[in-house]
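Progress narrative, work stream C.
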Amino acid sequence: MGKYITVHGGKIRGFYSRTPDNAREAAQFCNTDYFKDLDSLIEVSDTLFITTTDGAIKEIWDCIAKKNVKGKVICHFSGSLSSDIFSNKEGTGAVVCSVHPIYAFSNKFTAYQNLTEALFTVEGDSEALQQMQGLFRLLPNQIVQIPTEAKVKYHAAASVASNQLTGLLWMAVELLKESGISQETAYQMLEPLVKNSVNTIFSQGCQEALTGPIERGDKETVEKHLQALQYPLWNQSYRAVGNLVTELAKEKNPNRDYCSIERLLKESK
């Protein structure tokens, strides 16, 4: 994020870390300074970004809150935590918020190059978000404000669309491997199928993209799938996602009867 901000004309005063080598590495990458103590960084900054793991944010805030942060913006980048993590903020004089880019950061040195299309969600104190407008205007990203109380639900949605989708695709690859297909060929087979589905979803919506035996009401094929999935976890996953697909199919085809498929999917193996 520091690199991304500097690339788009933002000013990063520097980095501080309890591990000095990490701060030096980040500072060198962003062509800025690293600080040996937190107080020095706070003194020259108007905004403090906490970019630790989620579990460390509260500890870092408790440390920062004891210092002179009056009038400063305190912001974290966690997807699952809201600005409520900044407890007793009133006594510090600081204003608080969180920013989360909906993007999978797989490599800290290259991820910034493809971040321009990601949407950023923000929540927190209105004054903090107002002060952040200067930064937001520099970035090409769309900014979406969400209610503080909706942060966990928002993050669950992002996790389903990214992490859990990856888990389902891994299951598909493993099933193809069990069918005697090499892993390399499995990925080649699935790529056009998945890309076409995703393209249709984002151009026409989930209802229009939905096809397959559940949508058609083909109970016999669904039953064969379940019989073939001997590994309990895969069978359970098929049933769980199948129930979601059935709900979507009912919305798409309100006059079609899906009762028999619903009963089949809810039966215990």
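Work stream C, second folded protein:
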Amino acid sequence: MRPFTEPQSKRLFCRVLAWIVGAVLGSALLLALHIQYAAVCIFALLLLMGTSVLILLYRYFQEQHRIMAQAIAQIQTYLAGNHDVRLECDEEGELYRLFHEVNTLASVLHAHAENESRGRQFMKDTIADISHQLRTPLAALNIYNGILQDDPDQKETVQEFTARSEWELDRINTLIQNLLKLTKLDAGTVVIERTPQNIAELMGEVEQHFRFRAAQEGKRLSLHGSTETQMICDRVWLTEAVGNLVKNALDHTKAGDSIEITWRVFSAMVQIVVRDNGAGIAHEDLPHIFKRFYRSRFSKDTQGIGLGLPLTKKIVEAHSGTIEVESEPKIGTTFILNFLIPTKL
């Protein structure tokens, strides 16, 4: 600790030193002049010096006590719940440097407390959303089961509601699987195994997976891009991300609409684009589409559960990529995935 960085300590030292020097010089002068009763005068001078020094020390420690008492009171106010209070540290010195560090610690603790509060609220909202998402298919399954019990001999009824039950079970399974994937990505327990992959082959797998559904719904699903394009990525996770975008496009298009997957290479990145000419996204919804369980009040989609786009965003970011969206209602939506090429950075 540097004792003379504080103005108060410096002033105290200078005043005490001045009194000591003055007393010594005064005593020496009295002795040199052989003044009568010099000893008494020297004693009086030293007594005056000692008294003055004690007064200076008393005032100094009184001021230090006032500063510390004020700091303790502010700390107690902080502990009582007022997290906006801070110690005054506008002056120079080690003590005020300590106060500054205490203020920094208080800010960090407050930030951690806010993060924990947001985390608890997020967990509460997530549990509520999961409960809501599960309640709908479970209620439907309960209804279907009751219908089957009431009319077990009707083959057509059994087939219809067995198919509906299977669809609801698929919804529950998709919800659980997506939640597990998001949880693993959030926790950082997923290992992204990056290997050189041919983009045309990956997109071909996505197209093959959704080909039957697109044909059934009368929609065109097409691929456009070089067959030579290579990218370092995790094959499974990247097809999952693009597949979610294609599924989202199928959910929001009608018969006769088209979905295109295109890819191309720039000087420093690979770009994958999923474009459709379907219903589009309302402008007020665009800032929220990557939030979990977000469902637009304008959406007529009854199949989605609000996890596909957040999962895609997580996967893209795990590949150090970015995702952008452009959309116009009744015109269509375009998702743009950009991945930097490490060897060209």
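The two ends are 47 Å apart (CA to CA). No further action is required on this item.
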